[in-house]
Design goal:
Layout (H helix, E strand, L loop, with lengths): L2 H11 L12 E5 L2 E4 H11 L11 H20 L6 H15 L6 H15 L1 E11 L6 H19 L4 H8 L5 H4 L2 E5 L6 H8 L10 E3 L2 E12 L3 E10 L6 H19 L4 H8 L3 H4 L8 E2 L6 H9 L10 E2 L3 E11 L4 H14 L2 H16 L3 E2 L1 H10 L21 E5 L2 E4 H10 L10 H23 L1 H4 L1 H30 L1 H10 L5 E2 L2 E9 L2 H12 L4 H8 L8 E8 L14 E2 L3 E3 L2 E11 L2 E2 L6 H23 L2 E3 L1 H12 L1
Antiparallel strand pairs: 1-2, 1-21, 3-4, 3-6, 5-6, 7-8, 7-10, 9-10, 11-12, 12-13, 14-20, 15-16, 15-19, 17-19, 18-19
Helix pairs in contact: 1-20, 3-20, 4-20, 5-14, 5-15, 20-24
């Protein structure tokens, strides 16, 4: 077992796992540091089923373990191991990872996961009209574009062809060719607001204007179908000529049909793909492409053929897309994943797309309600005056005298933030693009983000106070890391480097490290008596095991097996019925096998040299050092056990 995992496991064993307040008494102290009954009782009960050694279920013995553990943690702190930078960095990294579960709104996350999965079961085909608009556009510009998109909706609702309107007015560059048609897509393929509008619009209907970071959209849903899952295919591709060239295009068509004929005649698809396919990203792999679903490729024709194939190894006829001619082979169809199978991937996608804003906004809203904020309005007005138009040119600088801004700006709970902190935040955000206008709106915008950041930071830093279970897990990990560093320093390294101590320990305990009688042998076995007799004859002639195997294992048939080496008495490799004597045995049957044994040497039982059992000696020496070390710790630290309280604990547990 990895030593660090061992230490962290021990730490878990002795951590607080129940968090409701319950009556507790001091069970013992280590240098006046109290350790309580509730922790001991909870830990003992929690780990009762995990302990295989019955002796460890004995409460007196368990208390010894518990006290020993706490002694080691006290020693680690006394040595200052908690100040080690590596320890602190690892603890900080772990806290950052653990805190992620608390710095989110689990209810909103759950709702988004369920919504995303439900949507992923369907595929929508839609067209859209886009009028582009900057995310931070002025209100008057936003209103102007909104009126334009409303006018287009009126025309579409009145019966004008949506495709024609898209081709004429949409500012999506592809609309000129595809008339706004986006093909089929499922959840997580479009920006969230666009996706939501599409899934909330009925087939044949046109959505209300939808705002995304690209601008305003109108969405017309033309079809909805069940999600077809994913597919893995291989293809052979001949690319369309880069320029208009009828002869080259005709040659490609002829060649693809010739390749198809070869496949029909039984030639391997993979070999033909390697030889002829012009898709260099897949030809070396026999034409195999990465797994994909609807809407993930830029060719609807290619996807249509891929999903039309039904059975693995089924091969399509040659077909043409905008990229060239193809022949396709189905490798595997992948059904839609279950919720549990898709959950981890959806969580990752949610964290990367606009959905994450809903989670963040929800948490920010809760924190603002949890920690009422008091703002110095006079100072806020002063800060607004200090920010000039130069901010938009990334040329604004802090006021020459910042001392006048150092008074309290915002306060909440136990946090106090001065005005200079906000000014420095404004300076750090100056180079961001798309700054709101005018200056008053800009400062309000950044203040809101600054406040949310301060609330989140305060909340994060106080998770231990907010959540007893978080504090307990952190304490568990903190002690586990300390214990690992302490054991490594005091026990493990010493057991490996203290050569004289290890030799002395081996010598003093030599009776524990003994060889049984050993035999240096060659063992030949076979299920056939006549083969075993032939092997016996060859061994008598002095042939070696490899020569005998070469002579008797012919035509791909393994007639004999040979094992050689030094084996202790009772080893499974040795036949049980042979009385080992130096020299060659007779053929002996044991079960379904016939054995012949050549005994080269017999070594009598005796003590093992240190090099022959070093691993075991090191482990035993570590245990010896630890036992003596704990005894020494009891001398170094003052341990006082409240025996009366311990008797109460015993009675409580036995009930």
């Amino acid at each position: 077992m990895n030593k660090k995992h061992f230490c962290l496991g021990i730490s878990i064993l002795f951590s607080v796992f129940a968090f409701a307040q319950s009556p507790k008494k001091v069970l013992f102290t280590v240098d006046e540091n109290p350790y309580y009954t509730d922790e001991f009782v909870r830990v003992y009960n929690k780990n009762l089923d995990l302990v295989k050694d019955e002796s460890q279920k004995d409460l007196d013995y368990y208390l010894e373990l518990f006290v020993g553990y706490k002694l080691k943690i006290n020693k680690a702190n006394k040595l200052g191991l908690q100040n080690n930078s590596k320890y602190q960095n690892e603890l900080k990294s772990y806290r950052t990872q653990l805190s992620k579960n608390y710095l989110t709104d689990s209810k909103v996350t759950k709702e988004l996961l369920e919504e995303g999965y439900a949507r992923s079961l369907k595929e929508i085909r839609a067209s859209h009209i886009l009028l582009t608009l900057d995310e931070n556009a002025k209100p008057e510009d936003t209103l102007a574009v909104y009126k334009q998109i409303l006018e287009l909706k009126k025309r579409a609702d009145s019966g004008e062809e949506f495709a024609a309107l898209a081709q004429q007015y949409s500012q999506d560059p592809s609309a000129k060719e595809n008339q706004g048609d986006l093909g089929y897509f499922s959840a997580f393929r479009m920006v969230y607001s666009f996706e939501s509008a599409a899934y909330q619009t009925k087939v044949g209907a046109i959505s209300k204007p939808v705002r995304t970071r690209f601008g305003y959209h109108l969405i017309k849903v033309t079809d909805v179908r069940d999600n077809r899952g994913d597919v893995t295919v291989a293809h052979i591709m001949l690319m369309n000529p880069t320029e208009e060239n009828p002869e080259a295009a005709e040659k490609n068509k002829t060649t693809i049909n010739e390749i198809y004929a070869k496949i029909q005649q039984g030639e391997e698809f993979e070999a033909l793909a390697k030889q002829f396919s012009q898709d260099k990203s897949s030809s070396g792999k026999g034409g195999v492409l990465n797994r994909f679903g609807s809407g993930q490729l830029s060719s609807e024709e290619f996807e249509t053929v891929a999903f039309s194939l039904q059975k693995p190894n089924e091969i399509s006829k040659p077909f043409q897309t905008q990229f060239g001619w193809h022949i396709m082979k189905l490798i595997e169809k992948h059904p839609v994943k279950t919720f549990e199978e898709a959950k981890a991937d959806m969580e990752s996608k949610i964290s990367r797309d606009e959905r994450s804003r809903k989670i963040t906004e929800s948490l920010n809203e809760k924190l603002r309600a949890k920690y009422p904020v008091k703002r110095n309005e006079a100072l806020y007005a002063k800060i607004k005056k200090a920010v000039t138009e130069k901010y938009y040119e990334s040329a604004w600088e802090l006021p020459t005298d910042t001392k006048t801004f150092e008074s309290e700006f915002i306060t909440f709970s136990k946090a106090k933030i001065n005005g200079t902190q906000f000014l420095n935040y404004l300076l750090s955000q100056q180079k961001n693009s798309n700054q709101p206008k005018p200056i008053a709106a800009l400062v309000d915008f950044h203040y809101s983000n600054f406040l949310d950041a301060q609330l989140n930071q305060f909340y994060n830093e106080n998770l231990e106070n907010e959540f007893p279970e978080f504090a307990a897990v952190m304490e568990e990990y903190r002690d586990g890391l300390l214990l690992f560093d302490l054991m490594e320093k005091e026990i493990w390294e010493k057991s490996k480097t203290d050569t004289l101590g290890l030799e002395a320990f081996h010598k003093a305990n030599s009776g524990k490290y003994l060889w049984k009688k050993r035999y240096d042998v060659v063992v030949i076995s076979s299920t056939k008596a006549d083969i075993a007799k032939k092997a016996h004859k060859l061994m008598k002639q002095g042939k070696k095991a490899d020569e005998i195997k070469a002579a008797l294992n012919t035509d791909g048939v393994i007639n004999i097996m040979a094992t050689s080496g030094v084996f202790e008495e009772g080893n499974e490799a040795l036949p049980k019925t042979i009385a080992f004597q130096k020299g060659l045995s007779e053929v002996t049957k044991e079960g379904n096998y016939y054995y012949v044994v050549q005994t080269n040497e017999i070594k009598e039982a005796g003590p093992k040299l240190l090099e022959e059992c070093k691993g075991r000696v090191i482990n035993d020496y570590q245990q010896y050092l630890e036992e003596n070390w704990v005894a020494n710790l009891k001398q170094e630290f003052k341990v006082a056990i409240n025996k009366e309280v311990f008797e109460e604990v015993k009675s409580q547990i036995k009930k």
